[in-house]
Design goal:
single chain; 153 residues; Thiol Ester Dehydrase, Chain A; 6-stranded antiparallel β-sheet
Length: 153
């Protein structure tokens, strides 16, 4: 279930709030190939299904950066902030890839609000997003996302 904050100011004091989980997302070869086309990363472990079968994972795996980019898919399912004029993605900290995402698997996100602070006429929130693999022992990816919300005036 999405956690809703009616205004950016409502984020203040929400540190430690657990978010999610999201719905499961199936990772198929078409998505991986599309990411390879967009980024130019056509390494065989991602796109050559025949060669990858004999590789270390028994098949193709998603790019780590594809997995990370899916944070943008999961965040709206985890948290919704309303009542802002505009918002910006400031960046990310503490990015880690902990387990490969095999093509054909399903992943989902969970989150935790790590910090919230007022900053230059805005509210900045750091949300740690963990991407889990269905049936996996370790998360695929953990990243601290940094978002800045500028309240309506």
């Amino acid at each position: 279930m999405t956690r809703i904050f009616e205004t950016p100011g409502d984020l203040l004091g929400s540190e430690g709030t657990i978010l999610g989980p999201t719905e499961w997302l199936h990772i198929d070869q078409q998505r991986v190939n599309g990411f390879a086309d967009v980024t130019g990363d056509h390494q065989w472990i991602h796109v050559d299904t025949e060669r990858a079968r004999a590789g270390p994972f028994g098949g193709t795996i998603a790019h780590g950066y594809l997995t990370m980019s899916l944070v943008n898919h999961f965040l709206p399912e985890l948290i919704e902030v309303r009542g802002f004029a505009h918002a910006v993605n400031v960046g990310a900290d503490r990015l880690r890839f902990l387990a490969p995402v095999k093509v054909g698997s399903r992943i989902r996100g969970t989150g935790e609000i790590i910090s919230v602070e007022e900053m230059k006429g805005a509210i900045q929130a750091i949300v740690r997003v963990t991407i889990n693999i269905e049936g996996g022992d370790k998360p695929a990816c953990v990243v601290d996302t940094i978002s800045r919300y500028f309240p309506e005036t």
